[in-house]
Write a structure and sequence with these properties.
The structure is a single chain. The protein has 523 residues and is α+β, with helices and mostly antiparallel strands. 22% of the residues lie in helices and 27% in strands. The chain has an eight-stranded antiparallel β-barrel. An eight-stranded antiparallel beta sheet has the order 18-19-20-21-22-23-24-25, with no helix packed on it. A hairpin with a 2-residue loop joins strand 11 and strand 12. The longest helix is centred in the first third of the chain and has 20 residues.
């Protein structure tokens, strides 16, 4: 029995058990190499308590994995000379503007490279069409509404994941091609790759009889079908088709993209010194326990999925699920990869010698740092050194210079603290992930906040309450709390009724209802 045969045999037993244990309606999986689909299969049903079985041809929403397909379409347009990665997007969208605190006319410096690599500074949600308010507005209206947003940091400063940049990149293709974005991709990418079970078009999806239905316990039966962030998250595909897409990356472009063009997708733009992983152009570049991988994950609207390749071993793995309530299912992807590849010899990454750091340097960077979803760590002085605290875990830090250190643990992480005019950041060099300094005001004396403080607001998704936010005032400092949530974020007044949090998001009290990060706060 070959290694792949043994892995497949084990999965045929493991997956049904996983579905039962996690109350997961269904799952599809695929394994491929550069030229063939080694195995693909479906398990469970298209909906909870349903009878229609999932197969390897059943279509699933792949959410943010859509970003890889959009980036592929953009790179094809680059290859053909329709667009240039480093030309300001106002050359293609002359009417486009965006608000910024750090630059005059920031839109004049934003390029397609910034859009595809999440380095333009955008927030995650648009005023029209979002994860919170689906609405009925067109993709064009959604993209046009981005002009009413504020950038979180200077253009090109660092990576911060956002749907908006990818959607704007798709909108650029729509404008330069003269075709609707979904039609351009269908003609120029999906048809040449023979991806007949893949589409960005929600009309096609709604008419498809063999598609999985998304499940989310917090939304019940009201999980939306239509995804307004078309370029960033609207793809539906099957396990077989997803494998065929991954073959594009395993084969060096599948004849669609030239090797040099697809290689450009794998470069990490604007990487910090010493950064070893991160986000390329529409694709994540990283490692799992020493195994180099490229690909994407997706989640939302009732679906979770993984699509990854191990380029050094010529293997791709797809896992598609129709519930957001069983994240353990995505652990399958890494296990399948590791079992197929076998033991990995980790290459040691050479690090500079440790240096002694003075207490003043430690005190300067010590504090609380908050990332996506209130993901929080704290740097704390301890004796002559420092520790990084995350939940109950404490990791001693080994400094390699005054602002860079490595956590001493079984899975060490490398960090650099950045401090400039836009704030203080904790950058993880392993993947470019950023957390923002939260416990110290960004400058000046506390300001007596104006506006409606010390009251709660409700956050809704598709009309259903999912969260509570409290705006409060404490010793003349404005704060925003998620309830329940581990941390309050400090707010700094920008102008009457407008405050920016320590993570760069805008609280806009001039709107009715008020918004935070373009998400409505309902009384």
């Amino acid at each position: 029995m070959t290694t792949s045969d043994a892995v497949i045999s084990a999965l045929q037993t493991e997956i049904p058990e996983l579905l039962e244990k996690q109350s997961l309606p269904g799952l599809a999986v695929g394994i491929c190499d550069a030229s063939s689909i080694i195995w693909s299969a479906g398990f469970g049903t298209t909906r909870a308590a349903g009878t229609q079985p999932i197969t390897s041809r059943t279509m699933f929403s792949v959410q943010s994995c859509s970003k890889m397909y959009t980036a592929t379409a953009v790179m094809l347009a680059v290859q053909r000379g329709l667009v240039d990665l480093d030309t300001p997007i106002v050359d293609y969208l002359p009417e486009f503007t965006v608000h910024g605190r750090f630059e005059k006319r920031p839109e004049s410096t934003i390029t397609l490279r910034h859009l595809l690599s999440h380095t333009a500074g955008f927030t995650h949600e648009a005023p029209v069409g979002s994860n919170f308010r689906i609405g009925k507005a067109s993709f064009t209206a959604h993209c046009q509404s981005i002009s009413d947003t504020w950038l979180r940091f200077p253009v090109g400063h660092h990576y911060e994941y956002s749907n908006l940049g990818i959607d704007l990149a798709g909108y650029v293709l729509q404008r330069v091609s003269g075709l609707p974005f979904v039609e351009f991709v269908r003609r120029e990418v999906l048809a040449p790759l023979e991806l007949a079970r893949t589409t960005f078009d929600h009309h096609v999806v709604s008419a498809e009889p063999d598609r999985a239905v998304g499940h989310d316990r917090s939304l019940g039966p009201r999980v939306p079908l239509r995804i307004p962030m078309v370029a960033a998250g609207a793809v539906y595909t099957s396990a077989e088709d997803a494998c065929r897409y991954l073959q594009l990356h395993l084969s060096g472009g599948s004849g669609l993209l030239e090797p040099s063009v697809i290689a450009e997708m794998y470069r990490i733009p604007f990487a910090a010194p010493g950064q070893i992983g991160g986000y390329g152009l529409g694709i994540s570049i990283g490692a799992w326990d020493g195994l180099a991988v490229r690909g994407h994950s997706g989640g939302g609207f009732g679906f979770l999925c993984d699509m990854y390749v191990a380029p050094d071993h010529g293997i791709g793995v797809v896992v598609l699920t129709n519930s957001v309530n069983a994240p353990e299912a995505l652990h399958l992807t890494g296990r399948i990869m590791r079992n197929l590849v076998g033991d990995i010899t980790r290459e040691s990454v050479g690090l500079p010698e440790s240096v002694a750091v003075g207490r003043a340097d430690i005190d300067r960077i010590a504090g609380e740092y908050v990332g996506r979803g209130n993901d929080t760590v704290e740097l704390v002085a301890a004796g002559s050194g420092a520790v990084l605290c995350r939940s109950e875990a404490r990791h001693t830090l080994r400094f390699v210079d005054r602002a860079e250190f490595v956590t001493e643990s079984d899975s060490p992480e490398r960090y650099r603290v950045l401090d400039d005019e836009s704030g203080m950041y904790l950058l993880r060099l392993d993947d470019g992930y950023v957390r923002y300094r939260n416990d110290v005001p960004s400058g000046g004396e506390p300001q007596a906040p104006d506006g409606p403080w010390n009251r709660d607001y409700v956050v809704r998704v598709n009309g259903i309450k999912i969260d509570t936010v409290r705006l409060r005032r404490e010793n003349d400092v404005a704060l925003i709390d998620r309830q329940p949530g581990p941390r309050a974020l400090r707010l700094e007044k920008h102008s009457t009724g407008r405050y920016f949090s320590s993570t760069g998001e805008l609280l806009d009290l001039t709107k009715s209802p008020p918004t935070y990060a373009n998400v409505r706060l309902h009384e």
